[in-house]
Design goal:
By secondary structure, this protein is α+β, with helices and mostly antiparallel strands. It folds into two domains: 2-157, no CATH class; 168-273, Alpha-Beta Plaits, CATH 3.30.70. It is 29% helix and 29% strand. β7 and β8 (191-194) form a beta hairpin.
Length: 275
Amino acid sequence: MEYELITPKTTFTFRETLSGALDLIDIKGVDNIESPGPVEEGTLSFNYEEINSWARLTVKALQGSKRNQLRSQNLQFLVQAAKIYTFAASGIYYKAGAWIDHTIPENPCYLALMRAILGDEVAKGIFFEYGLGAFSPETLASRNIRGLISPFPDDIERVARRWFSEQKTIYTRVVGFGFRYERFAKIKEGAEELTIQVGRQATALRESFNKNDPNAIAIVYENGEKLGYVRSTIASYLAGVMDEGTVFSGKICGVLADYRDDNERVYVEFKGLGF
């Protein structure tokens, strides 16, 4: 079997080997396709309304082949990979990491494919956004998340410090948003919705005076209201970079649905100025 995964900016082609393994045989960049068009036979269509994006997965039988047997585990992997890649392409790294953690089988071949689909830099970005524990660098997520960096280093803290110091673009979520939700909510046609919009400006501000965390980095919306904070484990690396003169400013890259946890709803893209 051959599979073609089409997203607004990239097309991936996969082929099953004689042993049933899945190989990534081609990656093509395409113009930004706003609409995927009509669904053809043998095609699965995915519409990710939260991020205003989509993906298509087409299953193709190879002519003259005696091995055109649909392997459900490969199809299941590609369905999840489509969602993970599309959300990651929108800067929603934390959710991409959560789905890798919980929906991709602990299989070295699938993890290698996931790294190839995402690209090394995005895979590392997802690891550092999701894989670093909630309270310390030593608290890491599952083997799947560790598989995003290969080979996995002995000194992850040193690697993390270097990675954050060299990155010109950081994608991260806003934590603590639940405490400020009401400042950004309004009632429209009887329903509550957020006034935060994708593409609007957001800025990272150091709070070295913060009594709870001297590494604290606040995230401020374009109207001057504080949205929340960069997660503490990430702030512990970025704070030093900012204290040396780098300013992180950017935009909102994602606002997810209200059924999500408040700490997983708002996402930002920061670019470092001062390199």
